[in-house]
Design brief:
This protein is α+β, with helices and mostly antiparallel strands. It folds into 3 domains: 244 residues, BirA Bifunctional Protein, domain 2 (2-Layer Sandwich); 107 residues, Herpes Virus-1; 121 residues, Rossmann fold (3-Layer(aba) Sandwich), CATH 3.40.50.800. The chain has 18 helices and 23 strands. The strands form 7 sheets. Strands 3-9-10-16-13-12-11 form a 7-stranded mixed β-sheet. Strands 20-19-21-22-23 form a 5-stranded mixed β-sheet, sandwiched between helices. A 3-stranded antiparallel β-sheet has the order 5-4-6. Helix 2 crosses helix 13. The longest helix has 27 residues. The radius of gyration is 26 Å and the shape is globular. The two termini are 38 Å apart. The mean pLDDT is 89.
Length: 516
């Protein structure tokens, strides 16, 4: 685990050093849990968004997009349940004066128990070698069984306390399991209290006439309140979906793990409207489609898993997360929820407007049920960077840091490098860029040795480097170098667009999603 933490630290500093992610307001010592995307980061982020957007609105005729405002009528958040129910259970340590989320403290305790089980399995695997039967060992070893029983006992208590919203029981669990404050090391805890996560501000010019409004904590409600506008103007027939990418804001107390949990973040959400009674079938379908989208990136199928929710939100009748193996364990990157007709039904009640759909096939009106797919752009960014970051020892004894980013998502697709800064080579390199820049994000680099220039491109994940040498002026051929294998081949300049295009086009990813 310590080794993974080291990798994570290196990844965070790599993100800063190569222009992917900067701490926000850094010259003023930063602002906690807020980050800015640099010149490389914004390209990667835009490519992730395009991959998601196209997978929704290009591949599905019945999904369209919108872009709703961040400010919304405050009653919307009353109707959605956010004013009353969007709370975190917080607990303070009286000695360190630090505040924690009670549920996170207990989840960390569960993770420690998981680690103990894994250590037992690893020890046994070393002891027994190739003859080791892991499944049998997990089922029969008394020590593992004891750890599993303790974990299950804590897990069921925790799940019940969360479902019952029992704050006293959460505190009791923390005391019973002797969970200490990571800073003071003491068990001197306050009671658990609820804390609302929405940022509020005022709209209006005078303090008397100002209306309290909220920065949206999710983008979904913008879709729900526009559902009828889209359905009518687009003449949409159920089932259909509405997709949206946008900023959301949460006043997280425990904001940590770099860009994994931030106060200002970006979501990619799609709400899919279906007939009542068909929602669980569609829930299953969207689980499969979304997992295919992730796996198409080629980061490793074993790095994904579904995690079904113990505690269902007040609006859901089924919920699962797609979790990705980050350097700090499996973590949620996407949620898929069957939201029933809670949202539209609630907005009907609070607004007094009829939001029903008339189904011509059934010849009846009903409030549609909704399947939601919701993914954090920043978490997706982090999972891709974590999977791509690689330190390699080379045959000549040197080492390199390379970002093995999926080529269609890489910020820069092609670097063109003149072998020397004279003899017409820079001009030839510029000529190549001028023909390719309409299709691909290109970089020109003439400083330092060719080896150092390769290293720089490896560090930002550029899939192809093209070297222009003296022969290029005669034979119109260049040397193309592939990032992952470092193999080099001589190719005609007029074939570059085709060679690179096949590798870096989003189409190659999108085709994988629709493959049966």
């Amino acid at each position: 685990m310590a080794q993974q933490e080291d990798v994570f630290k290196k990844l965070v500093s790599h993100c800063k050093e190569y222009g992917f992610v900067f701490p926000s307001s850094e010259i003023y010592d930063g602002l906690a849990a807020v980050y800015d995307y640099g010149q490389m980061g914004v390209e990667l982020k835009n490519n992730i968004k395009k991959y998601w957007w196209d997978s929704m609105v290009l591949l599905h005729e019945n999904i369209v997009g919108i872009d709703s405002a961040i400010f919304m009528h405050p009653t919307i958040w009353k109707a959605s349940g956010h004013v009353d129910a969007f709370n975190d259970p917080l607990i303070d340590n009286k000695d360190s004066k630090k505040r924690y989320r009670a549920d996170v403290l207990i989840e960390d305790q569960l993770a420690k128990m998981d680690e103990k089980i894994e250590k037992e399995v690893e020890k046994a695997a070393k002891r027994f070698g190739e003859s080791f039967d892991e499944a049998l060992f997990r089922q029969t070893n008394p020590r593992v069984q004891e750890h599993v029983a303790k974990r299950e006992e804590l897990h069921s208590r925790f799940a019940k306390a969360m479902n019952d919203n029992n704050l006293e029981e959460l505190r009791q669990i923390i005391l019973d399991y002797e969970i200490v404050c990571p800073i003071s090391g003491t068990k001197n805890w306050t009671d658990v209290r609820q804390f609302n996560l929405m940022f509020s501000t005022e709209m209006g010019s005078t303090s008397d006439g100002a209306m309290k409004v909220y920065l949206r904590p999710e983008t979904a409600q913008g879709i729900f309140v526009n559902y009828l506008n889209v359905q009518k103007t687009g003449r949409m027939r159920i089932p259909f979906g509405i997709a949206q990418i946008g900023k959301a804001f949460r006043n997280e107390i425990v904001a940590r793990q770099f860009i994994f949990r931030m106060r200002e973040f970006e979501q990619m959400e799609m709400q899919f409207f279906v007939r009542p009674g068909q929602e669980l079938e569609w829930f299953k379908t969207w689980k499969e489609i979304r997992l295919k989208w992730h796996k198409a990136l080629g980061l490793g199928d074993h790095k994904y898993r579904f995690h079904d929710h113990d505690k269902l939100a007040h609006y859901a009748n089924a919920a699962t997360d797609i979790e990705f193996e980050m350097p700090f364990g499996f973590k949620e990157v996407e949620g898929i929820h069957s939201r029933t007709n809670f949202d539209l039904g609630s907005h009907e009640k609070y607004s007094g407007k009829k939001l029903q759909y008339f189904d011509p096939e059934l010849n009846e009106s009903y409030t549609p049920y909704v399947i939601e797919t919701s993914i954090g752009v920043d978490r997706m960014f982090l999972s891709i960077m974590a999977a791509a970051y690689c330190e390699e020892k080379l045959e000549n004894g040197e080492s390199r840091v390379v970002l093995k980013l999926p080529a269609p998502l890489a910020p820069v697709k092609l670097a063109v490098l003149p072998l020397v800064k004279k003899d017409g080579l820079p001009e030839k390199a510029r000529e190549i860029i001028d023909t390719l820049k309409f299709d691909f994000k290109c970089q020109y680099d003439e400083k330092d040795s060719i080896g150092k220039r390769y290293r720089r491109q490896d560090a930002i994940g550029t899939p192809f480097c093209v070297t222009v040498d003296h022969d290029s002026l005669q034979d119109n051929m260049v040397t193309i170098r592939h990032r992952d294998t470092m193999e080099q081949q001589r190719v005609p300049i007029d074939q570059l667009a085709q060679i690179i295009g096949e590798q870096v086009s989003l189409k190659s990813l999108l085709k994988k999603i629709v493959e049966k």
